[in-house]
Amino acid sequence: MSAPQRSSRGDRGFTLVELLIVIAVLGLLVGIAGIPAVDSGEQGLQQGELYVRDAIHTARARAMATRQTHGVTFDLSQNRFIVLAGDGTAVSDPFTHKDYLIDFNRPDMPSNLALSAVDFGTTGPAAIFDAQGDPVSGGTVTLACQQSSLVLELDGATGWLDVQ
User: Fold this and answer.
1) Which residues span the domain enclosing 88?
2) What pTM, to 2 d.p., does this model score?
3) Is the sign of the CA dihedral 16, 18, 24, 30 positive or negative?
4) Among 39, 114, 146, 156, which is least packed, fewest CB within 10 Å?
């Protein structure tokens, strides 16, 4: 006896076109009902905060690792900052192997993200860490994006960077 042949459409599976239509419909549903929109100003501030935190962390970690002064110098007029060694040379970014320079004017940055104020007391617009990784002085970095702003405070005693 021979096995019965499958003749119904359900036994053969779905065509590629049918699968693509289902995926497209699911994509539309996720887009409509899915992730709530976040204010782009808040997103810009979050991204800027991550860049500042990483630069501060990098300068502090390099100071401790090399037992040499390192810092982050902020340039309000150019809307950028750079991680520097104690001798004033730029530190290399571990990912790009270029100077560790963050420029908020780049096209890939959130629009209207800006350094609006920087104050580290005696060191001016620079967060400087001594050879043990301790900050020379505490201070603040203020970021602005659209109608929102965010103040990051570097604690002079602990070296922690917190949102004010």
Assistant:
1) 47-163
2) 0.75
3) negative
4) 39
Instruction: Judge whether 15 lies within some domain.
Output: no
Contact indicator for 141, 53 with CB cutoff of 8 Å? no
Tokens of 4: 């019965």
- The two structure tokens encoding residue 73: 């110098």
CB 27 within 8 A of CB 19: no
**Total count of domains within the chain:** 1
Q: Tell whether 125 is covered by a domain.
A: yes
CATH number at residue 59: 3.55.40.10
**What sign does the CA torsion over 115, 121, 122, 128 have?**
negative
CA angle centred on 117, ends 112 and 123, rounded to 5°: 140
CA gap 125, 53 in Å, rounded:
15
Which residue type does 67 have? R
Residues 70-111 pLDDT 10s? 999 999 999 999 999 999 999 998 888 999 999 999 999 988
Check if the beta carbon of residue 78 is closer than 8 Å to that of residue 13: no
